[in-house]
Automatic annotation (TrEMBL):
Keywords from the UniProt entry: Membrane, Transmembrane, Transmembrane helix
Protein's organism: Parageobacillus galactosidasius
Transmembrane segments: 94-110, 116-136
Protein name: DUF5683 domain-containing protein
Length: 139
């Protein structure tokens, strides 16, 4: 159940909260995600990057909004994963997610030097989160 909530938030921040029954928080996260995504041109950058136009993907991105996105994204996934289990340990389980958010921001800062910027930044965030979900699945 925890991993399903996290998967929903990986697919769309806020969906994991709705899955957990936190409807208002989930809708709020969806709204924030859509505004940040629209103002940062994140989907446009993903589209350009996956079509081989890596430099244009970096140029179209508004980094004022993009630098907020990795931390927000990782927090949404952690929040959905954490709240899916009653009485979960908050202190240890957050560390891989914090690392994922930090790596995502660092990847966004150095995106113009990465061969496939959006995929690299996504993997920098998702891999530590999945490792954390595996390691701390029972806590």
């Amino acid at each position: 159940m925890r991993n399903i909530a996290a998967l929903f938030s990986i697919l769309m921040p806020g969906f994991g909260q709705i899955y957990n029954g936190q409807f208002i928080k989930g809708v709020f996260f969806i709204i924030v995600e859509h505004f940040d995504n629209a103002f940062g041109h994140i989907n446009e950058a993903i589209h350009l990057d996956f079509n081989g136009l890596h430099q244009q993907a970096v140029e179209v991105t508004h980094f004022d909004y993009m630098l907020f996105y990795p931390g927000f994204y990782v927090y949404c996934v952690w929040d959905a994963w954490y709240h899916a289990k009653p009485n979960a340990d908050k202190t240890k389980t957050a560390i891989p997610f914090i690392i994922g958010g930090f790596l995502g921001v660092m990847g966004a800062i150095f995106a113009n030097r990465l061969p496939i910027p959006t995929l690299t930044v996504a993997m920098l965030m998702i891999i530590p989160m999945i490792c954390g979900m595996i390691v701390f699945r029972d806590q």
